[in-house]
Write a structure and sequence with these properties.
Layout (H helix, E strand, L loop, with lengths): L3 E6 L4 H12 L4 E8 L7 E4 L2 E4 L1 E2 L10 E4 L3 H13 L3 E4 L15 H4 L9 E3 L3 H17 L1 E10 L6 H15 L34 H14 L5 E8 L6 E9 L5 H9 L4 E3 L11 H4 L5 E8 L6 E8 L3 H14 L1
Parallel strand pairs: 1-2, 1-6, 2-5, 6-7, 7-8, 9-10, 12-13
Antiparallel strand pairs: 3-4, 9-11, 11-14, 13-14
């Protein structure tokens, strides 16, 4: 690849920091790197490629000469600055929900629909982290037996709510163990030793009773897999885990697919690692997936209540493959 001038927007956040690690680890050819964030972060040094670079305040003029913009600073920032960056000549890979359902913007998982990248008009959307890890596993099953319906329950780590959420879990856990009062700022109720069926944590429920996160999984799955007939029912839950999302997934297919055949095709699928040996009690966990690139799948078994049903357990690092890595893979394909 030819070296590219790259801007990382939201460089001081959890995903921005992971983007920098992934760029370095995968030896992405960076000719020039601009680290962009809010004015309060301006001047902060961040090490990249053996050099300390200073964070700059994001402005409308930040994208002169930039060829690739990796955005992860929130939907409002992306809505304002991604079109500015694209107009300046950059291709934006946006990690927020700002453009995901825009029919003019490709929503891309490289292992699933990489061909859509060439259809961009300056902006490419990164899917939701929970959608990415599920669809990477669903797609090879869909190609083999056609997925009709999916019922998914997520068990999402607090890192999905940002660095302050991780700190809140840490501090509240200590407070609960010490039987002290704790004043929380991020979550609507106790997260330590608890599970909260509301994501995002401070967003109102939709009139349907679903949350925004649940509807993201429904809509994004159909768009990425290019099949509006796939039915998706999602329940999204925040759990007291620092890193990696886990998902219990029930899949109904049009054609019969045995567990043995499912394991076989998933072992060959890009971006998927099968960890599934019931006799030895081997299955994916959040700790196993943390810091890794793959979507791990295990607990594969037949659903005996329907003719063509499979149950499975999918785990992936939500900050890495669920955000940073997927964005960098898109940039590599560009």
């Amino acid at each position: 690849m030819n070296a590219k001038s790259v801007a990382v927007v939201g460089a001081t956040g959890a995903v921005g920091q992971e983007m920098l690690r992934v760029l370095e680890q995968r030896r992405f050819p960076v000719s020039r790197l601009r680290l962009l964030a809010s004015p309060r972060s301006a001047g902060r040094p961040i090490r990249f490629g053996g050099t300390d670079l200073k964070v700059e305040a994001l402005t409308a003029g930040s994208f002169a000469g930039i060829e690739v913009g990796l955005f992860s600073a929130g939907g409002a920032v992306s809505k304002e600055y991604a079109p500015i960056a694209a107009k300046a000549g950059a291709v934006v890979v946006d990690n927020t929900s700002a453009f995901r359902m825009d029919p003019q913007v490709p929503l891309v998982i490289p292992e699933v629909n990489a061909r859509r990248i060439r259809e961009h008009h300056g902006i490419i959307a990164n899917p939701n982290c929970s959608t990415i890890q599920m669809v990477v596993v669903l797609n090879p099953i869909h190609l083999e037996a056609r997925v009709k319906r999916v019922v998914v329950t997520t068990f999402q780590s607090v890192s999905g709510a940002g660095m302050r959420a991780e700190q809140e879990l840490h501090d509240e856990t200590i407070a609960v163990l010490q039987k002290r009062e704790f004043r929380r700022a991020i979550f609507p109720c106790q997260i330590a030793f608890n599970a909260i069926p509301q994501i995002p944590q401070k967003a109102a429920f939709l009139p349907s009773g679903c949350t925004i996160e649940e509807m993201k999984m429904v809509q994004e799955t159909m768009k990425i897999m290019e099949d509006d007939s796939i039915r998706v029912s999602a329940t999204c839950v925040r759990v007291p885990v620092f890193r990696s999302h886990s998902e219990s997934v029930n899949v109904e297919t049009e054609r019969n697919l045995t567990v043995e055949r499912a394991r076989e095709i998933l072992r060959k699928a890009p971006g998927v690692e099968v960890v599934d040996d019931p006799a030895k009690e081997k299955y994916p966990t959040a700790v196993l997936a943390a810091g890794k690139d793959a979507s791990y799948v295990g607990r594969l078994r037949q659903d005996t209540t329907i003719p063509n049903g499979l149950d499975m357990w999918i785990v992936s690092d939500n900050i890495r493959k669920g955000a940073a890595l997927n964005a960098v893979q898109i940039a590599e394909l560009l």
